[in-house]
Amino acid sequence: MTTRTGPAPLAIHVPTRRQLLTGIGLLVLGQWILTLLDATGKTLTQQGLPLVAVAWVRYVSHVVVILLLLGPSRFRIQQRPAKPAMQWMRGALMLASTLVFFSVLKLMPLAQATALNFCAPLFVVALSPWLLGERPGRHASLTRWGGVLIGFAGMLVVVRPGGELTPAGVALGLLSALLFALLQMLTRRMAVHDAPMTTLIQSGITGAVLTTLLVPFFWFETMPTPLQCALLLSAGVTGSLGHYFVIRAFQYADASFLSPFLYLQIISATTVGYLAFGQLPDWTTALGIAVICAGGVCVAGGESVLRAIAGRLRSPR
């Protein structure tokens, strides 16, 4: 599931072209790694492994990997949140998003599931005036709401009657997008109080604790095979590393610059979906996915943002 960590505050005030390109590279790398996590979740759940048990291994391994990356002393320092209650709420929301998205992957191809999750920014625009109090100017508001309409039109093309997607998969896909939108909005609030790494650590801890409470009721019926055990452990590695690289990307470049590049994950989802599962979207579905991405770019700022990105990349600095 795409980059499932919201944009972090800008760490470098005036990034150079090299820093911007580094940010793009880290974001794309993180997206590819997170797509491998999605493919692993899809494989394991389709093979009948309990969803909660898969999530438990994923989150426990996540905490272990971050601990090894940072070392015990830095881990302890970074782990202390300024708003513990909000961090626990965000972690619970992230766990719910993970469980629902893995359920979606069990029912539909990777590319289509990822595309439906791209509806999350559309939900953010629709809900932010009420939940975040954000009321942009008239021109920006028209551009964003135009993007919402375009994106939802693309979503209707993807889930069209007679298409290959099941109604249950579509319903769960939209629920996953809504949960991810709420997660993004809560992440924005947390960014004021805690560093991105603190949020990443606390998300893993919350998920590990909550799944530990649930997993005795959803344990493996039979011992996983050696290959399944390897895939289970890899889920924690890809989940933690993917989110880590995404966080690092937003420390090199600001969110307004990187937002349009988030939609490049559809390339990794389509590629991995074909290589791992032999699934490719048909032309009509591909058109719908492209329309969803176009709507998302409009929500991010549209043509003016794309021109600004091109100008900043052409800068000699």
TrEMBL record:
The EamA domain is annotated at 23-159, 169-298
What residue intervals traverse the membrane?
20-37, 49-70, 91-109, 115-133, 145-162, 168-187, 199-219, 225-245, 257-277, 283-310
Output a single Gene Ontology CC term carried by this record.
membrane
Cited Gene3D superfamilies: 1.10.3730.20
SUPFAM superfamilies, alphabetized: Multidrug resistance efflux transporter EmrE (SSF103481)
Q: Which InterPro entries does the UniProt record give?
A: EamA_dom, EmrE-like
> Which terms are listed as keywords in the entry?
Membrane, Transmembrane, Transmembrane helix
Q: What name does UniProt use for this protein?
A: Drug/metabolite transporter (DMT)-like permease
Q: Which organism is it from?
A: Cupriavidus gilardii J11
